[in-house]
């Protein structure tokens, strides 16, 4: 069980999504991936993709226009 | 009373209507319906279908003229309609106001959702890609006589075959573009 930070600040769509997809593939079941984003459309498509895959997802607003999408690799 | 006012914005943050209407983005379906309605209004009011990128060519021409240049001989601005637009100025150019509305509307939306942030430039690669991408899109949109709004969206909406031809070209371009993006930006 580890937590991995993925810095996608300053990246526009669809880069955060592709980066998150690639990163999650490297992780073990039970690991957490925290994607840092500041692009509001990534705040929509990253959680949407992760939920569709069946992972547990939480979005936290850490600052104005800055979010952390926390994805638990459940399977 | 004083105390209550001080907490107004804190209370607003958790208000369900604030969250629903201003904080959370609209769903794609809501946005699509609104876009469709407003493009009909645009066509009905201005007698022209909705377009976005053509305006930038006009702005460019105005800037060029302001520093002493002349576009009178340019093929793109040769038609009497284009000349009339250039002569009419910003105040009479509905398309310019619509674009300004998009820019300031986007700013207002992000401020209302308290999501405004000046983003850092991450790498030189980003700057080059943005500049190159902008140039290609701008140039491509002009030689195609429209962008994904004027040529594609408005084209298809007015039952023109050209809109569908544009869609095929754009789809192929998007496939190539995505491959390049993944190759050079991941």
Describe the structure.
The complex is a heterodimer of chains A (75) and B (186). Chain A is an alpha+beta fold and 75 residues long. Chain A is 33% helix and 35% strand. Chain A contains two helices and four strands. Chain A has helices spanning 15-26, 40-52; strands spanning 3-7, 32-37, 56-63, 66-72. Chain A has a four-stranded mixed sheet with strand order 1-2-4-3, covered by helices on one side. In chain A, α1 (15-26) links the parallel β1 and β2. The longest helix of chain A has 13 residues, at 40-52. Chain B has a domain at 119-186. Helix content of chain B is 73%, strand content 0%. Chain B has helices at residues 2-6, 8-13, 16-23, 28-46, 53-66, 80-88, 94-112, 124-143, 148-157, 161-185. In chain B, α9 (148-157) runs antiparallel to α10. The N and C termini of chain B lie far apart (54 Å). Classes of the chains: A alpha+beta (75), B mainly alpha (186). Chain A binds chain B through residues 9-11, 14-15, 18-19, 22, 38-40, 43-44, 63-66, and chain B through 25, 110, 113-117, 119-122, 126, 178, 181-182, 185-186.
């Amino acid at each position: 069980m580890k937590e991995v930070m993925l810095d996608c600040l300053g990246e526009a769509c669809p880069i955060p999504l592709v980066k998150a997809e690639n990163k999650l593939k490297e992780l073990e079941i039970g690991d957490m991936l925290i994607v840092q984003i500041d692009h509001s459309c990534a705040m929509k498509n990253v959680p949407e993709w992760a939920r569709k895959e069946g992972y547990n997802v939480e979005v936290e607003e850490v600052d104005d226009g800055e979010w952390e999408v926390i994805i638990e690799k459940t399977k | 009373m004083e105390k209550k006012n001080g907490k107004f914005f804190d209370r607003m943050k958790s208000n369900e209507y604030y969250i629903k209407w201003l904080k959370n983005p609209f769903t794609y379906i809501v946005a699509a319906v609104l876009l469709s309605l407003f493009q009909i209004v645009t066509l009905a009011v201005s007698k022209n279908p909705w377009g976005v990128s053509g305006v930038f060519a006009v702005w460019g021409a105005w800037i060029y003229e302001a520093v002493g240049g002349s576009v009178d001989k340019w093929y793109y601005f040769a038609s009497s309609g284009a000349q009339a637009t250039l002569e009419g100025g910003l105040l009479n150019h509905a398309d310019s106001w619509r674009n300004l509305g998009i820019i300031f509307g986007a700013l207002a939306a992000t401020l209302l959702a308290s999501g405004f942030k000046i983003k850092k430039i991450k790498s030189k690669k980003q700057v080059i890609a943005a500049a190159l991408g902008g140039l290609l899109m701008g140039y491509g949109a002009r030689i195609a006589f429209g962008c994904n709004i004027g040529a594609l969206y408005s084209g298809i909406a007015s039952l023109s075959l050209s809109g569908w031809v544009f869609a095929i070209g754009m789809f192929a371009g998007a496939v190539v573009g995505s491959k390049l993006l993944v190759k050079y930006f991941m």
